[in-house]
Amino acid sequence: MLSKNKIKLIKSLSDKKTREKENLFVVEGNKAIYDLLTSGLKARTLVVTPKFLVSLSDENYSADEVIEASDEEIRKCSLLKNPQQAIALFPLISSVVSPAQMKGKLSLALDTIQDPGNLGTIIRLADWFGIENVICSEETVDVFNPKVIQATMGAIARVKVRYTNLPQFLAECSELDIPVYGTFLNGDIIYKKELSEEGIIVMGNEGNGISEAVADQITDRLFIPSFPPDQPTSESLNVAVATSIICSEFRRQHFIS
Amino acid sequence: MLSKNKIKLIKSLSDKKTREKENLFVVEGNKAIYDLLTSGLKARTLVVTPKFLVSLSDENYSADEVIEASDEEIRKCSLLKNPQQAIALFPLISSVVSPAQMKGKLSLALDTIQDPGNLGTIIRLADWFGIENVICSEETVDVFNPKVIQATMGAIARVKVRYTNLPQFLAECSELDIPVYGTFLNGDIIYKKELSEEGIIVMGNEGNGISEAVADQITDRLFIPSFPPDQPTSESLNVAVATSIICSEFRRQHFIS
Q1: Which of B91, B108, B135 finishes a domain?
Q2: B105, exposed or middle or buried, with CB in 10 Å at 0-12, 13-18, 19+?
Q3: Which residues 6+ apart lie within 8 Å of A111 measured at CB?
């Protein structure tokens, strides 16, 4: 039985300040919850239909509290149009990632991404392309926003997200000789440029691109060409789309089948 | 002065049936409206701030009706969180595209894409990659849904979108020897496969992928590999993200700088 207070708590977690105060975030969706539980995270609260509970075996989850609820009760606290059979509350995950940990691998850095769907989609594709770390400027939308969590489709269980002073973090990476890539209209065409297996790919804000302070830290400028090159087209690509094209090209150049 | 009836009309166009009855769709955003007007489309109604009107010269737009409005009035009929300085109503665009017109070029086909943001983002990236035609199954979300139009960011002015019986359309393309590509888990790795300059790239529904009737028409199966290949990762990529990676790879293989 789901209490009124619990419903109120769940709904209140769409607000960032409340998430920080309660040290909790909401995950909806059977697959996303399953991914988080099986990655070893302990849920504070699991609100589940009897049917979903049966699908979880004792070995693969740990939770402080399991509340059985009807579909109707789940609908009451869901933020989704089509609620699924489970809602979970997890303690906020804090990821500490240092510039030294960027050595020898590919990472993403986000300079003030504002749309929750874009951030979630980027975390999901980072997971697909084996990118373990996403470094966000402090102005980037909160990763624990329910819309972000939803769009990650469970990838939040595998990708580390850290918020930090981005220009400073990138400067420290440069000092360690880690290349810092960014896309600019005057950049080198990605298809023709030799891309390294180590590096940080910086993606800019939806409207304004990469900020000046971050641009100063870019060591390699890239460009995704439109086709055909001389024809009028859209001014830009959606940021998640651009991120995916760049990540795919980095992986393609070193692909061993 | 914006009448109450006009505000009511604009708001009612978020409903598909009303759009069809009135033969109108809504475009918001200075850039998107500018793109449609300068592509030669005549607006039925332009609701603009005096400032935006000054930015349009007489030569580059045509409208049956121009209504000057305050920011406050525009906010009243806007569907956006941050309304811009113009809202326009255009007659619905009907695109008739035949299988024969698919010869010699790259096109996209969408099998029941449901999310308006995904459809809009796909139209925007089609524009970027010089894809003129997007063929949609009849079950795909309506392109004139305001959220779709918004996400195209003006690309709707340059990309033709046709709704049709998709399996039948693709069968007719196959008869014309046009390759029909689709992504499947058992497909050939896109980075290793020779991709043609002519063809139709089919993308499937967000949850269910490509339907059986459409799958029967696919001549070439593709796969975007995750990295590293043997590590647990997300089950899939967002459909707009997957579309962009595939389109980029088709263009890269024939790229001449």
Answers
A1: B91
A2: middle
A3: A137, A140, A166, A202, A203, A204, A205, A210, A211, A214
Q: How many residues does chain B have?
A: 257
CA distance B137 to A89: 39
Q: Is the pLDDT of residue B115 over 90?
A: yes
The rounded distance, in Å, linking the Cα atoms of A119 and A166 is: 16
pLDDT category at B174 given cuts 50, 70, 90 is very high
Q: Say if the Cβ atoms of A153 and B235 lie within 8 Å.
A: yes
Query: Which H or E element spans position B200?
Result: strand B199-204
Strands (E), B17-159: 24-28, 43-48, 63-68, 86-91, 106-111, 133-137
Does residue B227 belong to the interface with chain A, where contact is any CB pair within 8 Å? yes
Domain count, chain B: 2
Structural domain boundaries, residue A220: 99-253
A241–chain B Cβ distance below 8 A for any pair? yes
Confirm or reject contact between B245 and chain A (CB < 8 A): yes
Label residues A204-229 b or e (16+ Cβ within 10 Å = b): bbeeebbbeebbebbebbbbbbbbee
Residue A35 sits in a domain whose CATH number is 3.30.1330.30
pLDDT tens profile B123-172: 999 999 999 999 999 999 999 999 999 999 999 999 999 999 999 999 99
Q: What is the H or E stretch that residue B51 is in?
A: helix B50-55
Interface ipTM above 0.90: yes
Q: Which residues contact B209 (CB under 8 A, 6 or more apart)?
A: B184
- Is this structure's pTM higher than 0.90? yes
Q: Write the pLDDT tens digit of every residue in B39-90.
A: 889 999 999 999 988 888 766 789 999 999 999 999 998 988 888 999 999 9
